[in-house]
Amino acid sequence: QAKRDPKEKCVRFHDTMRLRRDENLALKKDMERAIEEDEFALYFQPIALTASSETVSAEALIRWLHPEKGLVPPDQFIPLAEDTGLINRIGAWVCRSVAQAQVRFRKRGFDISISMNVSPWQLSDPEFTALMMDLPDLYGCDPTKIILEITENVVLGEIPDALTALNELKIIGYSIVIDDFGTGYSNLAYLYNYPIDGIKIDRIFINDISNGGAIVKLILSLADALGATVVAEGVETIEQRDWLTENGCDRFQGYLYSKPVPEDRFLGFLESQAHIPTK
Ligand code: C2E
Ligand code: MG
Ligand code: MG
Ligand code: MG
Asked: How far is the CA of 201 from the centre of ligand 4 (A)?
């Protein structure tokens, strides 16, 4: 094998870094335009009861309808939005859009809860809590039917004023759920000290059910002890759903039931169901 010049390797490393930086700068500019031009959309994925497969709520998931690239999934821009602070503006769009969607759903006869994803960094933005407080007056939405999903891709304790913000949001009537539970910086102390209503079990643990599901059982008993609701994410097989039913997990979400779909398709899906409970 030919010996490589270490200097050459170094140059290549720096080229890669520069490329990455240039790409990120371009993506950031692109996102700024997308905010101005209103290029985002919400898709909805139903959350259903494991025992009866009845839809009980929906998760709103952002999509970027890019004029050239087509549909861009959140994993490709939310992390950079978080790094650059643009998440506050995108997050505000999500808040307003979820509030308006809830009112539209209600008018169509589906008074269901909607979950929205909140980046932990938004919790230290005073404009975020102020907007959440204004949403009911602005749009006529019901905060008791809006669930905030907070991912733990960062230590919540290190986010300035996160606890204060969560307590304020609870007082207004919103519910708080920890997303991707078990994969991030999940810390048992949060569950006691933070006003948490529920847990979403990350799909890596649901995937593991075929190996016995020890972690899922553990999370279920933890949630039970705390009086927290549980949703299993990423359920793709009937076997997984049935295992969840047998082990006392009431709610699930996943491709087995439905992928995230645009609003009109989501409402069509609800309309095609025989019976929709209201809670
Ligand atoms: P998440 O909140 O954990 O959302 C669940 C993700 O799993 C979604 O990906 C969904 O499409 C996907 N999923 C659902 N069921 C299945 C399944 O059965 N199998 C598999 N393989 N995947 C499934 P999506 O929509 O690409 O979103 C990715 C992440 O982006 C979300 O993860 C969330 O963390 C973030 N995100 C989405 N929308 C927003 C938003 O409005 N604001 C913020 N801050 N983050 C968002
Ligand atoms: Mg989520
Ligand atoms: Mg999740
Ligand atoms: Mg997840």
From this structure: 8
87-94 mean pLDDT: 98
Report whether pLDDT(143) > 80.
yes
Question: 85 — alpha (psi -120 to 50), left (phi > 0) or beta?
Answer: left
Catalogue the E-assigned strands of the chain.
Answer: 40-49, 55-66, 70-72, 113-118, 146-151, 175-181, 198-201, 229-232, 251-252, 261-262
The DSSP bridge pattern shows strands 113-118 and 146-151 to be: parallel
Quote ipTM for the complex.
0.98
CA distance 186 to 31: 30
Which residues fall inside 5 Å of ion ligand 3, going by CB?
179-180, 233
Residue 169 structure tokens: 């949001």
What percent of the chain is modeled with pLDDT above 90? 80
CA 180 – ligand 4 centroid, Å: 4
Atom of ligand 1 nearest to the CA of 255: 18
Token readout for 120 is: 């932990």
Q: Residue type for 239, please?
A: E
| pTM, full prediction | 0.93
C-alpha distance from residue 152 to each of 106, 114, 159, 249 (Å): 31, 20, 11, 22
CB 253, CB 46: distance < 8 Å: yes
Nearest to 217 by CA among 239, 178, 253, 249: 249
